[in-house]
Specification:
The chain is of the alpha+beta class. Helices cover 49% and strands 9% of the residues.
């Protein structure tokens, strides 16, 4: 038996009190857990029976499973968005983008029509679910997901429409469909960290442009502008294509037209001649009363009366016109409503003759009439266009439109908008500003550099004569410091031609590396180096494209990064006006990772190259971890880079796997904040670990591997456990299941590791990095350690700290109650119990 003995004077007994399992960790179900196994099981069963599942059938099954899992995860677990986003992206990226709307070799084309209708419904449901948390996704990943949803729903809608025999103006293929992807090109901070995302977006763009060139009709569902109160029928369609399409559907389907008329007759009152005459008579009386009151007001005003009577309102002319049958039918098809979640709507509709149970079919199918006649895919396409427009142009989640056609009152027309969000066909300025700020902090002269508009996404700004000419005419940035002004003037020349920008940036910053200690200058470099630039009206991948064309850029970048890391490694970690050496190192590591990521997604021929360069950078990170003067958060950031460089490798050994999880846990021991936090790197790290954990689930089913790996991981992240030399019996947590592993040391003591969240805890709480080191100034601490301080501490809950002294071994510090005093305990392998040391 081994244990800790108290290392300071006084007596202290340690008692393990019963403690409930911590609830704050939560359970993050894996994005890929069970899905592939379940699919393989069904397919093997089908093949055993002599039926080979088609690729389209596999996608159909996986889509249904993904939707169920994402819905369950969203209702049961906190921080579910990472897992949902990962699973949705993983599924969508395996679904090929159709080359054209007439493609017949797409996997989904092997499905029958009912199955296709199920796929469209589930895709729309998944799209709506994704849109609720899409704001937390990376900008480029969000664009890829949103436009992939729209493209697939449109393609499948066309396929169903063709199978139903729709022709001419009654066919969706006759109408152009809005494509909002190009609007994102106006975002100044737009870049594509993943080349695969860029290439899929270009494939989607080609699909929509190809289709719209062949379609001859107006755009369908092009704009759903906000309308409040009662509206005339002419304002409801919002675009000419809508009305033409609805009318064509009615003329081509007699049963649909009859059902629409029956519904409209019940909803929209037909005024009799007597009722119209009565409303006109009342309107005339109201006009006469208005004239009388107005005369009284005018006389009082002319006489300068102190207390004026209220000015009368002009009477509203009654909207008692009777619409034609066709107009009423179109209103029924244009309708989109969902009673649930709208306060007062249900009672309002009941008073106007709505059968709530018959008419309301939930948030997805918001027009039961179209669904009854096999046209639900039209509703889903309208949803997809709406969601794509809102996310691409407004960059926020808005509810689906709710449009109800009903006679509101004698003084209103037939259309009523219950809840229809506003929109626009132009990228909002607030979206540009938000994404510009999210890309990273800028300050001082770097802000002026962008505010001048020289880097706006306009093709004319990237033509050599204009860019160079404007620079030579006058200094662009009004900076009082002459040296700084000349530096920024030189920087403007990098905008002359997008293919030369990365190399020119390296050339300009080589003699000014000290400037890269400033986070604002780092962001300027990253935005210009990795920006997705324009060329001939089309956005380009930028540096990721140039790397694979010619190795000149990578060689120059590698030399730049190596020189920077070596230079700042030798500098003492002292913060000056220009920042700290670590700040610059963080920048160089990020550059190295983003460059290698493009190669990692390239053909397999680059795999050895990526492995070699990633290992070199990992060794450099380890050299930085040994550097003196780094604080807890800076060391945590270095662990993040270790994880990211490992993520670029195709094949991982058990040792590398251990280092990945240890790095992830060390990174999560602190809360990274401040200007140097990179949302991009944090997102990529979390997504990679979740995916990796799902892929390695089978390995953790083996007892020997699980026990060996979890014990080694605990020792790596809680060093005081190394001296126990015990390989605990680890199991999947019976409360939350995989990926949480549990080692029950005794009835009241345990260790728990959540692989996907990167957390470690025991009966005392969560293991975190300690920042409150006031005890180092206490006399007993100084006496025991001869004035040494700055050890790496792990806090476990609020009452326990642990650290390892390089010569004396492991120690624990236990807080006495809620006070500031701590008891120091030293670990003795031969001890059978915890007793005070002499």
């Amino acid at each position: 038996m081994r244990g800790f003995k108290e290392a300071s004077a006084g007596s202290q007994s340690v008692v393990n009190l019963p403690c409930p399992l911590p609830q704050f960790e939560g359970m993050l179900e894996l994005a890929t857990s069970g899905s592939d196994e379940g699919e393989r099981l069904r397919i093997r069963l089908a093949e055993t029976l002599g039926v080979r599942a088609s690729e389209g059938e596999r996608f159909r099954l996986r889509l249904a499973e993904t939707l169920d899992r994402c819905r369950n995860r969203a209702t049961q677990f906190r921080e579910f968005s990472y897992a949902n986003h990962l699973e949705i992206h993983h599924l969508l990226r395996q679904m090929p983008i159709p080359a054209s709307s007439f493609e017949q070799i797409h996997p989904f084309c092997t499905l029958n029509t009912p199955d296709l209708q199920e796929v469209v419904k589930n895709l729309t449901g998944l799209f709506i679910l994704y849109s609720k948390t899409a704001a937390s996704d990376l900008l480029s990943s969000r664009h890829e997901a949103v436009l992939t949803f729209q493209a697939l729903i449109h393609f499948l809608g066309l396929t169903i429409d063709t199978r139903l025999g729709s022709q001419g103006a009654a066919s969706l293929a006759s109408y152009r469909i809005p494509f909002y992807g190009d609007a994102a090109n106006e975002i100044e901070a737009l870049s594509y960290p993943s080349s695969s995302e860029y290439h899929r977006l270009q494939a989607i763009r080609s699909y929509f442009l190809s289709f719209n060139r062949q379609a001859r009709g107006e755009e369908l569902f092009a704009s759903e502008k906000e309308i409040k109160g009662g509206v005339q029928k002419a304002a409801i369609p919002e675009a000419p294509g809508n009305g033409v399409y609805w009318e064509a559907l009615l003329r081509s389907n007699a049963s649909l037209a009859k059902a629409a008329l029956q519904r409209a007759t019940k909803r929209i009152k037909h005024w009799s001649d007597a009722e119209i005459n009565e409303m006109e008579r009342k309107y005339c009386l109201d006009i006469a009363e208005y004239e009388r009151k107005k005369l009284v007001f005018d006389q009082a005003y002319a006489n300068k009366t102190t207390l004026l009577p209220p000015y009368p309102h002009y009477p509203i002319q009654p909207g008692h016109q009777n619409f034609s049958d066709l107009t009423k039918q179109i209103l029924m098809l244009e309708e989109m409503f969902d009673v649930e979640g709208v306060v007062g709507t249900e009672e309002f509709l009941k008073r106007r003759g709505f059968d709530i149970r018959a008419d309301n079919v939930g948030a997805l199918s918001t027009n039961q009439l179209l669904e009854q006649y096999g046209l639900a895919h039209v509703v889903y396409l309208r949803h997809a266009v709406h969601l794509a427009r809102e996310w691409m142009l407004n960059s926020e989640a808005t509810p689906l439109p709710r449009l109800v056609a009903a006679r509101v009152s004698d003084y209103k027309a037939d259309g009523l908008i219950m809840n229809k969000p506003g929109s626009t066909l132009k990228l909002q300025d607030k979206v540009k500003a938000e994404n510009f700020e999210r890309a990273g902090p800028l300050a001082g002269a770097t802000v002026l550099f962008f505010q001048l508009g020289r880097t706006l996404r306009d093709a004319s700004k990237w033509q050599r004569p204009i860019a160079e000419g404007s620079v030579l005419q006058k200094p662009a940035v009004a900076i009082t410091d002459q040296t700084e002004a000349l530096f920024f003037q030189d920087l403007e020349r990098v905008l002359s031609e997008w293919e030369l920008t990365p190399l020119q940036l390296l050339e300009e910053f080589h003699p000014h590396m000290e400037k890269l200690q400033d986070v604002s200058m780092q962001q300027l470099f990253l935005r210009l180096f990795f920006r997705a630039s324009h060329r001939e009206g089309q956005v380009r991948l930028g540096a990721g494209e140039l790397l694979l064309k010619d190795d000149t850029l990578f060689k120059a970048s590698e030399a730049f990064i190596s020189k920077g890391l070596a230079h700042f490694l030798e500098q003492p970690e002292k913060e000056t006006n220009g920042g700290k050496p670590f700040f610059a190192a963080s920048f160089f590591f990020e550059c190295g990772y983003r460059l290698l990521k493009y190669y990692a997604e390239a053909p397999e021929e680059y795999e050895p190259f990526v492995q070699e360069k990633a290992d070199l950078l990992i060794q450099t990170v380890k050299m930085w971890l040994k550097k003196e003067g780094l604080n807890v958060k800076e060391r945590s950031k270095l662990h993040l880079y270790t994880l990211l460089f490992h993520s670029l490798k195709k094949n991982l050994s058990e040792e590398e796997l251990l280092e990945i999880y240890a790095s992830f846990i060390e990174y999560n021991k602190t809360v990274e904040d401040g200007p140097f936090r990179s949302p991009l790197l944090c997102h990529l790290a979390k997504s990679f670990v979740i995916q990796l954990t799902g892929e390695r689930r089978a390995a953790f089913e083996e007892d020997a591997f699980r026990n060996r790996f979890a014990s080694a991981l605990l020792c790596a992240v809680v060093p005081v456990e190394r001296e126990r030399q015990e390989e605990g019996m680890w199991q999947k947590d019976p409360w939350s299941g995989f990926p949480t592993l549990l080692c029950q040391r005794s009835p009241t003591s345990f260790w728990r590791i959540n692989l996907a969240l990167g957390t470690v805890s025991n009966e005392n709480g969560l293991v975190t990095a300690s920042f409150d080191l006031k005890f180092e100034s206490q006399a007993d601490f100084k006496r025991l350690f001869h004035g040494e301080k700055g050890f790496i501490y792990n806090a476990i809950g609020m009452h326990e700290l642990s650290f390892v002294h390089p010569a004396l071994g492991s120690f624990k510090l236990l807080r006495e109650g809620l006070g500031r005093d701590w008891k120091i305990l030293r670990f003795f392998p031969e001890a059978g119990r915890v007793v005070p040391s002499p």
